[in-house]
Amino acid sequence: MRMKAAVMREVGKPLTIEQVELASPGPNEVLVKIEASGVCHSDMNSLMDTSTPTPSILGHEGAGIVVGIGSNVRHVKAGDKVALSWVPFCGVCPFCEQGQVHLCEIAFGPMFDGTLLDGTSRLSQAGQKLYHYSLLSTFAEFAVVAERSCVKLPDEMPLIQASLLGCGVATGYGAAVNAAKVTPGSSVAIFGIGGVGINAIQGARIAGASQIIACDVKPKNLELARAYGATHTINVAEQNAVQALKDLTGGYGVQFAIDASGNTNAGSSAWQGTRKGGTTVVVGAYDPKKELSLPAGGFHRVGKTLKGSFYGDVHPLRDIATLAQLYLDGKLMLDELILEKIQLEDINKAFDSFHDCNCVNVGRSVIVF
Ligand SMILES: [Zn+2]
Ligand SMILES: [Zn+2]
């Protein structure tokens, strides 16, 4: 079928709106009519990354309606509303077997190669292959995706809001609920109030934490953090974060700290601001050239846990469906995360807004089809 898509032709260049061909879904694949797609910072990073295969169709936060299924697909049917996850999983590898489906390896090769799970592409133009992105490619009117990228949604779930569930919302919520396992009445610090951090605040709030401390350098983001459930804020450009966390917790430090900042100094502060027996979760991606420095003295004595979390340790089918229900129950804020609704043709303007360093990158531009 022919469809309209935003095509990445060259690294760093604006996307171009073109007509492209989408082949039918394979036996384990689903054809989805995309209704909405968030524009994430990771799309921007990939547009600037020379390792992104081109030409390709970016976009990895989407929701839509199933319009076709492959012969083996059992989990969804035509007419179902779905949110999309960019980490499909196999269900049988050593990681899936242990319930760690977010660590399943089947998605990673295809993710970097720009294909679907079978190593091939469904996208083309005049006989030339176009690459997929994150096994989804949601900057297009339709997408062919793996069955296990599809999360069935309740009929009453609006798809514009649902388009946000599969990436930053799931990752942040999961970092608090799955990785840190925040408990009711606990104290939680969140470093880095961006697309992931703001949702870690929501996760901590939903988990019943009584003290939620937002740590960032932007006063505007700290103010927003309060609207999402932070009870305290620390501007780490002005205050010593470790000392401030201890001051707020009777000298002990927080029970749970989540670093969503991607900054190793924040990671070090998060660890040092975590109390004995507590858990520090690193969910932001650090610069691979950096090292995370932690004081070695007394390491064994404090009994703390340091945990890396990929994709918020989510089980997409379970957690994205839970998030949709939390939204419908009025417990998860999504409307506020939608900064603007745009047409596909305006996608480059959404990318331009990422360059404006004064912008508050907590929310999203959402493409509505
Ligand atoms: Zn994303
Ligand atoms: Zn697996």
From TrEMBL:
PROSITE patterns cross-referenced by the UniProt entry: ADH_ZINC
Parts forming coiled coils: none
One family name in Pfam for this protein: ADH_N
InterPro entries: ADH-like_C, ADH-like_N, ADH_Zn_CS, ER, GroES-like_sf, NAD(P)-bd_dom_sf
Residue stretches making up the Enoyl reductase (ER) domain: 12-367
Nucleotide-binding as UniProt keyword: no
Name the record gives this protein: Zn-dependent alcohol dehydrogenase
Protein species of origin: Paenibacillus radicis (ex Xue et al. 2023)
